[in-house]
Backbone:
């Protein structure tokens, strides 16, 4: 047991940190409340990812032959951490890099790899992921978006929901039903869909915070060439599971840094905010809550590091990702509630800290729903870690 | 970075698991808890033969000279067996002696502790039940070349079997650490039955006990420092013991959920049961992360060590209880019986919860470090 970074890990961190300091972009100056401003913001983010790509830092976990660095899991964690610490914009094609690219590399044809892979890293083509549907949330395999074979094409009809980035995506990894007559897991196919195809309609979905981070996507007789099947026809479920595991495994190191930033801001504020007639930081009950928030976050970091150690030996994402996600999502909700209690009515104003606390409180409601609900994650822990019988 | 136990650490832990499952089955725990001392001389001898009484004692004093990570690895297995023994008490005392005392005193006590011929404990708490050493009131009056101890210590673990009791007393404004033989004139040890019959607590009365000044291990701020550091080491051993108990409770509950049939199905098929079990995994694994991080930080003298110990104890205190609560609930009626072993672990968790300070005590220590404005 040695929690110190190895010389290679330290060198990787320093090299990345140096690059980030030298290449950090100026902040976006446009107005994101207008459609033109939002468009300009996407272009700004794409330009940033291109710069990251040219610096050799996009898709570091990918094999070298596909433009990555073959980075270890611990280096990937360092990458997430340093990116967040540096305060640089996120990589706009994050789904493409974390999930879709690796899936294409794993099961795609040579033509597909040649066609799509490089442009994922360079952000020339942005990707989204079409899994959830209005009637298929946790039960993704029950999805009803239909693809019917017509010569060399599939004709796709149906609706997806909660599709992040769809409004500026060029492609979508789409799950469709190609065989309605077999068990639900066995009739699903994964398609690589051009989002600019005739019949694709994207509608932003306004959420509880007032923003629209997600979309509804409608498919009305959309023609997709059979050559765009990823993996095998009717075997898309395996592709989907690998994808979902990657999704959970990826939520860790940057999450810690973001949560730490929020907690630090809260503790700093508690030293000047009044609570029950006292400075909040001197109120014994508030102190207990802040200390609990502090220790739970540090223990999350230790959980994360233990999982990273384990994953770097096993090389496959295991149930650790589910346990981490279960932990931080519920933690974030507790943290936001402590912020509300500590800051009182001040926390409810959109003007306080640019709406940090109102937005944070509301946004965290989604944390225990997105990327696997708390209930589904507990089912996974029960079945895969403890070997309890499947309940459904 | 590698957060796993190394190969030698794993082997040590495995040998501890084998040893305690062989030497300390539940029947043994039950027999010992019905006695006044919960002590088995032969079992202690076995532990000493393994070298574990001197696990963290430097080799020059006959110990294994291992670190806090190895200590945690072994203590975890003691917790899994719900071992009744003066191990934690003796570790606490030996960590204190190692940080105080002359070379001669270290040799005198630590060699005997390593050999298993000397058991020791620390008498810190008084009627106020305050784990902060600043709260010590018991007086050691200087008289000629001696200290005269008068007063009562409470919540002293394993005092009836300890050969030496390290009494923390106040002399003027200073603390002083005085080793007192249990059989010295004026020392009375009285059992105070508590929730956990497997780890006995005692009141110790000192009725004008005379200790030569030269016997004192340390005084003043260095005594305070040593007490805090040694208590940190013992706290991590206790926390490791707690995660062993949590793991036993989790394993036992999951096993029960797989075999207990209701409505014609194993109850582990129901999500209400599954989710409680998943929460137990979360508590147990998070507690384990916190304990091994703190054990590592202590072994490396990392600046985060003190805070890490408090974080681990706060988290383990709450999560061991919550794990036990779920364990009993998932067992239903059988979990409430004397016959089932769950209550042994449940009570141990409850007594460990308050030993070395409960969650609120440690959260306040954490708040002093991270909520209060950093000193310029």
Residues:
């Amino acid at each position: 047991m040695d929690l110190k970074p190895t010389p290679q890990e330290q060198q990787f961190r320093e090299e990345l940190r140096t690059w980030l300091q030298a290449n950090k972009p100026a902040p976006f100056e446009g107005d994101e409340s207008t459609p033109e401003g939002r468009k300009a913001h996407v272009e700004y983010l794409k330009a940033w990812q291109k710069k990251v790509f040219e610096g050799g830092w996009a898709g570091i976990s990918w094999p070298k032959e596909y433009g990555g660095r073959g980075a270890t899991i611990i280096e990937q964690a360092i990458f997430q951490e340093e990116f967040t610490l540096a305060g640089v914009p996120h990589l706009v094609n994050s789904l493409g890099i974390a999930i879709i690219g690796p899936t294409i590399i794993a099961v795609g044809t040579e033509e597909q790899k040649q066609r799509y892979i490089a442009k994922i890293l360079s952000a020339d083509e942005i990707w989204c992921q079409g899994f959830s549907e209005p009637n298929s949330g946790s039960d993704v395999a029950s999805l009803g978006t239909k693809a019917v074979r017509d010569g060399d094409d599939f004709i796709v009809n149906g609706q997806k929901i909660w599709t992040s980035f769809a409004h500026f995506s060029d492609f979508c990894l789409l799950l469709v039903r190609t065989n309605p007559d077999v068990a639900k897991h066995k009739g699903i196919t994964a398609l690589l869909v051009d989002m600019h195809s005739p019949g694709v309609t994207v509608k932003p979905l306004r959420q509880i915070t007032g923003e629209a981070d997600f979309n509804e996507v409608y498919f009305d007789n959309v023609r997709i060439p059979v050559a765009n099947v990823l993996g095998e026809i009717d075997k898309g479920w395996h592709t989907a599971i690998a994808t979902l595991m990657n999704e959970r495994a990826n939520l860790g190191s940057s999450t810690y840094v973001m949560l730490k930033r929020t907690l630090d801001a809260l503790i700093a504020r508690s030293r000047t905010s009044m609570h029950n007639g006292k400075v909040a930081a001197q109120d014994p009950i508030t102190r207990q809550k802040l200390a609990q928030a502090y220790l739970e976050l540090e223990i999350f970091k230790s959980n994360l590091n233990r999982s990273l150690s384990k994953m770097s030996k096993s090389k496959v994402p295991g149930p650790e990702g589910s346990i981490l996600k279960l932990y931080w999502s519920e933690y974030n909700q507790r943290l936001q509630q402590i912020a509300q209690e500590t800051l009182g009515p001040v926390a409810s104003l959109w003007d306080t800290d640019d709406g940090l606390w109102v937005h944070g409180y509301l946004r965290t409601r989604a944390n225990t729903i997105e990327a696997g609900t708390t209930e589904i994650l507990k089912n996974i822990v029960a079945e895969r870690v403890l070997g309890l019988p499947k309940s459904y | 970075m590698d957060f796993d136990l190394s190969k030698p650490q794993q082997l040590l832990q495995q040998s501890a698991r084998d040893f305690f499952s062989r030497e300390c089955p539940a029947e043994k725990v039950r027999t010992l808890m019905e006695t006044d001392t919960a002590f088995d001389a032969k079992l202690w001898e076995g532990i000493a033969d393994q070298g574990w009484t001197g696990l963290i004692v430097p080799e020059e004093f006959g110990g294994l000279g291992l670190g806090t990570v190895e200590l945690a690895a072994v203590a975890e297995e003691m917790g899994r067996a719900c071992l009744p023994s003066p191990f934690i008490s003796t570790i606490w005392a030996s960590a204190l002696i190692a940080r105080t005392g002359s070379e001669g005193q270290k040799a005198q006590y630590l060699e005997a502790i390593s050999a298993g011929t000397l058991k020791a404990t620390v008498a810190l708490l008084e009627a106020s039940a305050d784990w902060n050493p600043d709260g010590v009131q018991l007086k050691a009056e200087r008289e000629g070349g001696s200290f005269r101890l008068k007063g009562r210590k409470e919540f002293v673990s394993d005092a009836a079997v300890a050969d030496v009791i390290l009494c923390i007393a106040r002399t003027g404004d200073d603390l002083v650490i005085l080793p007192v033989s249990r059989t010295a004139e004026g020392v009375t040890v009285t059992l105070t039955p508590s929730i956990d019959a497997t780890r006995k607590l005692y009141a110790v009365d000192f009725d004008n006990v005379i200790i030569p000044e030269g016997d004192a291990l340390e005084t003043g701020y260095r005594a305070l420092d040593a007490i805090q550091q040694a208590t940190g080491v013992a706290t991590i051993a206790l926390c490791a013991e707690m995660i062993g108990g949590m793991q036993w409770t989790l394993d036992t509950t999951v096993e029960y959920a797989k075999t207990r049939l209701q409505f014609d199905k194993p109850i582990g098929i129901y999500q209400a049961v599954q989710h409680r079990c998943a929460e137990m995994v979360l508590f147990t694994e998070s507690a384990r992360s916190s304990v091994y991080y703190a054990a590592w930080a202590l072994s490396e003298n990392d600046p985060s060590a003190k805070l890490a110990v408090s974080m681990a104890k706060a988290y383990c205190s709450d999560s061991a209880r919550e794990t036990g609560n779920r364990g009993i609930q998932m067992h239903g009626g059988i979990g409430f019986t004397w016959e089932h072993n769950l209550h042994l672990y449940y009570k141990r968790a409850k007594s460990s919860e308050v030993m070395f300070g409960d969650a609120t005590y440690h959260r306040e220590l954490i708040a002093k470090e991270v909520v209060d404005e950093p000193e310029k």
